[in-house]
Amino acid sequence: MEAAGGAGGASGGGGESQPPKTLVDWALEILGTADPDEKARLGDLAATEWLRGAIPLPYDPSRPARPPPDRPARSAAVRLLPPSRAPKLGKGGSAQSRLALLHSLAHTESWAVDLSWDIVARFGAPLRMPREFFDDFARVAQDEGRHFAVLSARLRELGSHYGALPAHDGLWDSATRTSHSLLARLAVEHCVHEARGLDVLPTTISRFRAGGDEQTAKLLEDVIYPEEITHCAAGVRWFRYLCLRSRNGDPTASSIPQTITQCSELPRDGTGDIHKVEEVEGDGPKAELAQASNGDDKTVQQVEDELAKCKLVDIGDDVEAAVIRTFHSVVREYFRGPLKPPFNTEARKAAGFEPAWYEPLAVKEVEGQAVE
């Protein structure tokens, strides 16, 4: 599908092409759109239409699922380098360093738009995921597109623009490694990379504030930070869902790696409730960490309700421990190296991500011995 023609049809611009019919059709349209601003705009339109019910189906069950591209269309205006050759961003002590940090953040958010729509297109239909899965990741995609738009606008206000500096596409490298497995994609992209963003964002905010750029600091603190917590929460929530669904013998969970066997440990009759996103105590921005500006806190409860309907929330401590062991195995197989502390335990907890999930992954295992 050609990006230009599809964009015109989707936006009602009078072109001959028809608007996409399902959410997966929209996702493929967005992944085929190279211009980052248009990509974000179409993503916002698709998510809005889907969430208000104007798009009737997540996918068409009567036709074979059309695979997404191996690599999304991307603007040639952004010069890409291997991660090892990407220039250092600095610590925000100069105006130039702060521009580099801001450009890097905008670049990450643009890739996050593609990652969100890719998970919808690549895994949603083949695995027959419930409607709440599509709700969650449509909202995530919409958030990421808005984040890119506001950061790109801030770059222009500061006399620069997105594409003024080189960048790397390391995020898509990990997406390629997990393209065959939704379990691995959720673990690496949403529970490792997204959570790492939560770890470093407070320091990034402090650097902009210390450099006198209060406007960017507030943008990151009040808009992007709280919404990124809900994105990590979505990864944790649907990782649990897949483990539990696999244990229940659902044949559509076939993209779970066969080498990962810990899910077979899950008992069929747990007694506890699935862990919910917890709010953070206190006043000010920290008290808002578990809430999103567009009602994503309600989405958390909606998905928990759907899990209850599927009879998948009756998990006790032993089941949670088995899910966590599965998470450790998946991350060790698909993520290179240990996780880097210090961890933002408060924000991770708000995402339903307890230390037992990630602290054991902060050490290397050498010949059977764990070393820091």
From TrEMBL:
Signal peptide: none annotated. Residues 1-16 have a biased composition (Gly residues). Residues 58-67 have a biased composition (Pro residues). Residues 1-22, 56-75 are annotated as: Disordered. Coiled coil: none annotated. InterPro entries: DUF455 (IPR007402), Ferritin-like_SF (IPR009078). PANTHER family: 3-OXOACYL-[ACYL-CARRIER-PROTEIN] SYNTHASE-LIKE PROTEIN (PTHR42782:SF2), SI:CH73-314G15.3 (PTHR42782). This is DUF455 domain-containing protein.
